[in-house]
Amino acid sequence: MATKEGMEVLDLTKLGIQQLTQIKQQLDQELSVFNDSLTTLKMAQGKFRDSNESLEKITPSTEGKSIMVPLTGSMYIPGRIADGKTVIIDIGTGYYIQKDVDGAKDYFKRKVTFVTEQMEKISTMGLEKNKLREAVMDVMEMHAQAQLSAQKQQASKS
């Protein structure tokens, strides 16, 4: 095995079909985890964007107006806007903070940026894993072709 920039480089052509199958299965699992992570991050990104858009509707002039307050994704209760200058935002794991509307908009904008950056990192890693998976599959196909060719030669000699 050669090393390249601190990483081991493995010659896939020297591995057996069983080892290649194990590597492919591992890569398939990793790609599945990446896809699940991307889906979760995309949902979070959408929620942060929706929250930011909702803040656009909160102004001092909306104070005292009726709204529907979400308790869950599908359950709402009637409420009134008590203060059009500040909001309470969920920052995760049961913690809430009070911020002025502009501060809350900035918070959600930063969260969207952070989640987008994480999605880009995971996408890049996923592309690299997918390239490696394709290379493993190509070598597996080469092994299968060589085995088939050897069987044909054996059959023609008989």
Automatic annotation (TrEMBL):
Pfam families: Prefoldin (PF02996). It comes from the Eukaryota. The keyword Chaperone applies. InterPro entries: PFD_alpha_archaea (IPR011599), Prefoldin (IPR009053), Prefoldin_subunit_alpha (IPR004127). GO terms for biological process: protein folding; RNA polymerase I assembly; RNA polymerase II core complex assembly; RNA polymerase III assembly. Keywords: Chaperone. GO terms for molecular function: unfolded protein binding. GO terms for cellular component: cytoplasm; prefoldin complex. Belongs to the prefoldin subunit alpha family. NCBIfam families: prefoldin subunit alpha. This is Prefoldin subunit 5. It comes from Timema tahoe.
